[in-house]
Amino acid sequence: MKNADASEGRGDRPRRATLFDVAELAGVSQPTVSKVINGHPDISFETRERVQRALDEVGYTKRHVRPPTTTRSVEVMVDQLGTAYAMEVLRGVALAAETADVDVVVSRFHRAAPDSGWLAPGDWAKRLARAGRTGAIILTAQLGPGHIAGLTQEHLPVVVIDPLDLTNRNVPSVGSTNWAGGYSATEHLIALGHTRIGAMGGRRESIAAVARLHGFRAACASAGIAVDEDLVRFATFDYEAGIEVGEEWLARDDRPTAIFAASDTSAMGILEAARRQGLSVPRDLSVVGYDDTYLASWSTPPLTTVRQPLFDMGGVALRTVLDAAEGREPASRHIELATTLVVRGTTAAPGKEA
Hints:
Mean pLDDT: 84
Strand content: 15-25%
CATH topology of the largest domain: Rossmann fold
Number of strands: 14
Order of helices and strands: HHHEHEEEHEHEEHEHEHEHEHEHEE
Low-confidence stretches: 1-13, 63-68
Distance between the termini: 74 Å
CATH architecture of the largest domain: 3-Layer(aba) Sandwich
Helix content: 40-55%
Largest sheet: 6 strands, parallel
Number of helices: 12
Number of domains: 3
CATH superfamily of the largest domain: Response regulator
Shape: elongated
CATH class of the largest domain: Alpha Beta
């Protein structure tokens, strides 16, 4: 750090410290000092700490301090902001926040710090605390030991929606009955007469994806149907993965007559793969998705899917964060909301139209 003496002045009265004094001592620009003082989140933890030490050393005080706001704010952290899944969850969070008079801020979970690359897990909770957040909601992400330690240190309540795992019982989470959803989707296809069924799961590390495939296997076992392991695949939840898996399976001589997909988005990819193969849905191929986002009702034909109550999950997560901030323990560390099968136009008996 550079040396600065903010006490020099005229006569015996010490000169009031300025932004320039702090910037000189900390070795940063005056705008950076201003951002730190006003709580802007786009400053790295290291820089923020250096500026704070300089502020303390020169005894800087703001000339005009704004009265503290009484409005609470919750940050929703999502990696894939543009998905239909994320939008429906955010809609539930936003409307619940309106009712509770809470502001919602949306950001990425794996975010970059402006001047030091990716934000380290140890700085993650500190950024939220310095921004004055009441709490945070994390969508489909895994909290590592560094994140957990930061949350504990900052006393910051966090709720995870559709967590990748449930290994840390100290962090409340909200999900749905994924096993039951996978079971009901498969049971529906079997009832229509399908015996050669493909199942496309989501990411292998996702407990939701694993539970859906367990439900698929259980329904097949209950009906005495052997599962072809070549037609069970973990993949991402996106459209491109649906096309890739769909094209591979539908090019087989012994192709499946039905496919259960991990999400509505991947189901859209399977429908596109069927179109490219010249197959008619549902006569040549039945497809069931998962989530029941707006994509399901917009597709042609409309998609049969498992409705995951994403809107309600967002609202429950918001209320759980606010309860935790007020010291109220959740009734359960993992809250599961019920799924339901929504039958539309992409499923029918083999060889028949819907």
